[in-house]
Amino acid sequence: ILGRWYTRLGTSYAFLSIMKCFVITLATVHWLTCLWAFLAVNGRTAGASTWLSLYGQRTSEDVNEWTLFDIYNLSMYFCAATLTGVGFGDVVPDSQLEIALCTFTIFLTAFMWTGVLANIVNVVSNLDSYSTLFQKLNDDLNLLMDSRNLSSPLRLRAR
After folding, report:
1. φ/ψ bin of 47: left (φ > 0), alpha (ψ from -120 to 50), beta (otherwise)
2. How confident is the model over 85-136, as pLDDT tens digits?
3. Could you give the C-alpha distances from 70 to 40, 64, 93, in angstroms and in order?
């Protein structure tokens, strides 16, 4: 889909790369959010203690009255905080299954966040292609002059 946009609209590869990264990140965080919300709703139905009931105890809120959107919203908040490495500590796992899912979420979002940052750095570093080419040519020139043992005055004139 994004490739068709590039062809049709003539957008830059940088924009396409950022949008692709954004869509993949949002989709992954959505699915992780759905897993966390499922654990909360399933535990609430079974009357078990979950991360949601623990959150309700800590904040003195009646989470049994919460809608599915409220649970999804808190789950999304937790996944976004985990993705960015903030991790406020107000939402914590309560069972072994939730601890395992939390560990999985941390590792998956850590790898994803490094990919996001690498993508942004790549786009920013390639914004000025002429400057990058100039720097590469200067580096190649310096290597050539080193290999030929040129004198310093001649090196200065060549640069």
Report:
1. left
2. 888 888 999 999 999 999 999 999 999 999 999 999 988 888 888 888 888 9
3. 11, 11, 18
